[in-house]
Design brief:
six-stranded mixed sheet; about 30% helix; LarA-like; LarA-like_C; Lactate racemase domain-containing protein
Length: about 400
């Protein structure tokens, strides 16, 4: 790749109304530096420049958090980026959306290999629909619902209405986390995303970034259309964000960084390591700072609990009013299992070493560990235990020649 400024000039955005889509604080990326380069390359050439934070259903970022995310001092946004407005996506407010029509059931069925055969209403943040061009700045990692994150996923579910958000997560859960996470190419879920994205009238462009697993050092930057830039970044991500081990472990302890502030996001410490846990083993999600299951969906999660896919399919009628994104989160965090004869058997156990009380964990069918008694050095010395620092973005798999 050439210089980022040169690559941006080749996109020919002169006179365009541009909306830049960026991740919230749950993704590792040197966003401040990258956005500064994008801004300085485009400002004065474009007709307007807005920033839209692709929250999905994550909580909005207040101004101080936004400034920290962009490496700015308190009150520094207006001084550094005068005339550039920054917006939180408001997934729950229908007034903020533009309706782009519907993906017919036949098209959904074809894209999803028949797993989902229903029409999907396509609504997207109005800023996207009214722009001439949308530029995604975001990292690419293995992802539990789509294969690899990034690209058009920043539109759907990043700044979409709840219809695509629910369909996106539910389809990934139906396929099964371990069958789709880190899966390259056009997965059924990405095919549905692209079917929705193709209804956006604006040009869809991206600065797709691959960062080092241990931090936010940029290893690769890919500029182009959302599909082209994403595909190149996903291929690179597969080389650096998938770690192979030679044998399964009885226990994996995922040490979650502070950027995951609830289990909705910290559950990445479960499904990114699930493939290397032995049958009957356990994942311990170590996140003493996490005090809630979800900032946004806590009440629904407490009602549903955490269960395998087959259990939730068997109780679909009882849970028909629960958003399918919540059901998918339940499946992702609990992992593979069966439900036969009224008995649920999950392949592995999941314990939370968090600030969530033990009774609350038991009520949602998760185990509990006192974070104050979790001895990480001692666990790391146990040959049957793998301690994963800064868990959540790197996928662990068994070496194909060494797996069971």
């Amino acid at each position: 790749m050439g210089d980022l400024s040169d690559e941006l000039h080749r996109l020919d955005l002169d006179g365009a109304r541009v909306v830049v889509l960026v991740p919230d604080g749950t993704r590792s990326i040197p966003l401040g530096r990258l956005f500064a380069e994008v801004h300085d390359a485009l400002i004065g050439r474009v007709a307007s420049l807005d920033v839209l934070i692709a929250l999905g259903t994550h909580p909005p970022m207040p101004p101080p958090a936004i400034e920290r995310r962009f490496d700015l001092p308190p009150g520094g946004w207006a001084a550094r980026y005068p005339g550039v407005a920054v917006h939180n996506h408001e997934w729950h407010d229908p007034r903020t959306f533009a309706d782009l029509g519907e993906i017919p059931a036949t098209e959904v069925a074809a894209a999803s290999a028949g797993l989902l055969a229903e029409p999907i209403r396509v609504r997207v943040n109005r800023l996207v629909a009214e722009a001439d061009a949308c530029l995604v700045i975001g990292p690419v990692f293995p992802h539990e619902s789509v294969g690899f994150s990034g690209g058009d996923k920043y539109f759907f579910p990043g700044v979409s209405g709840p219809e695509v958000i629910d369909a996106f997560h539910w389809l990934g859960a139906l396929i099964g986390t371990m069958d789709i996470i880190g899966r390259p190419g056009l997965t059924p879920v990405r095919a549905v995303i692209q079917a929705a994205a193709e209804r956006i009238p604006a040009r869809r462009l991206a600065v797709a970034v691959v960062v080092a697993p241990a931090g936010d050092e940029v290893l690769g930057t890919y500029v182009g259309t959302t599909t082209e830039a994403w595909a190149a970044a996903a291929e690179h991500s597969a080389q650096v964000h998938v770690r192979y081990v030679d044998r399964p472990y009885r226990r994996v302890v995922s040490v979650m960084p502070a950027m995951y502030d609830d289990l909705w996001t910290a559950a990445k410490g479960m499904y990114k390591v699930e493939p290397i846990v032995a049958d009957g083993g356990e994942v311990v999600v170590y996140a003493p700072h996490v005090a809630t299951f979800s900032v946004t969906h806590d009440a629904m999660i407490r009602r549903v609990g955490y269960h395998c896919r087959d259990y939730l399919l068997a109780h679909a009628d009882r849970l028909a009013d629960v958003p399918r994104a919540v059901l998918a989160h339940s499946i992702h965090a609990r992992g593979a299992g069966t439900y036969e004869g009224g008995v649920e058997r999950c392949r592995i156990d999941v314990r939370l070493a968090t600030a969530i009380p033990p009774a609350d964990c038991a009520a949602v069918a998760l185990g509990w560990a006192d974070p104050a008694t979790v001895d990480l050095p001692a666990l790391a010395a146990d040959p049957e235990t793998l301690v994963v620092p800064k868990a959540g973005e790197q996928l662990y798999r068994l070496n194909p020649v060494s797996g069971p």
